[in-house]
Amino acid sequence: MEAVMSFRATSRVSFQAVSSLNNRPKFTSSGMSLPISRTLMVEQKCRIRAQQSDSKDGSATLSTVGDSEGDALKIKEWEVARLQDEIAASQGIRIRRRPPTGPPLHYVGPFEFPLQNEGNTPCNILEEIVWNKDVEVSQRKERRPLSVLKKALENAPPARDFIGALREANLRTGLPGLIAEVKKASPSRGVLRENFDPVEIARAYEKGGAACLSVLTDEKYFQGSFENLEAIRSAGIKCPLLCKEFIIDAWQIYYARSKGADAILLIAAVLPDLDIRYMTQICKMLGLAALVEVHDEREMDRVLGIDGIELIGINNRDLGTFEVDISNTKKLLEGERGEMIRQKDIIVVGESGLFTPADIAYVQQAGVKAVLVGESIVKQSDPTKGITGLFGKDISF
Ligand SMILES: O=P(O)(O)OC[C@@H](O)[C@@H](O)c1c[nH]c2ccccc12
To answer: 88 CB contacts (<8 Å, ≥6 apart)?
Structure first.
């Protein structure tokens, strides 16, 4: 990093390259504290120069502090993150992994620095969740580094065959295999079930004929937890478990496995192709299934271009707007896409907004071999009966 830039000055403004836990630049009450990429530095230089001419004696001072090797590394990391956002954007991904940083819009200091900060507000709920997740994961990682986590895997219960269970259920019932979701609340629906006992719900689902379960682990937006996942696994539930989490870092995959997950979710609206490739490899290594979730044609085409994908979820809910439309499943399975999916023997899961036997028949007709259902069954006082109602018949063993 450039050492100290100094212009003769009447006032002095210090930029400190400090990063927060998640390497995200921070704004502290004691002053400005932000990592500065070279580009930004150049911009700032220009702005200072512009302001210089406004000042009485035509001068200003700008100095950088904290230019240790560690800080330089953090700045590099930040620059890499911005680059990753650019790559993601080129793949049509609107969700940025972190806020693009910069001081608050109306900062008033010795100088007013109109740094780039538009877009420091999340563009939608999915982006907000991802930004929060980034902070959460950084904190969790500090407590349990990957090396420690890898050791913990030795004591984790063995991974079970998630995809095999879906295929089996589909053959057994002639209906889509059910992934029944243990979900207390969601940002779109609020609290779905007040009296929420995750193990009791999981047992009821299993009894009702669910092939697999999906367990929400996000705390902030879904009131889920890894404790719920762990509890369901250690209660002796046989159904393989999907850890329903917003995965943005490979560390989370190891963590999910250590808590007893048999499958994890990868959201194409959040993850660039390279991440999906890398993360599915990790899943294979750990014996986990990866459910890769798409919502539109572009995401579907990206995912179909990645080798080794075995399970694709079509979400009928737009995670940005919460809009639900079950014809989305049909739309994404029409024509060549459907053909390719059959050729590759990929299992497709119809996700969200499924309430009635007619809904199930509709997505099955469209080509799904499995469905992921939460709200319509978790809300029932007896979730076992909820499953029978959803399929219009008893699908239990
Ligand atoms: O409750 P529903 O409408 O039946 O939806 C279940 C599931 O598809 C939904 O919870 C979901 C699909 N993809 C997600 C990604 C994150 C969180 C939640 C989800």
So the answer is: 95, 96, 97, 272
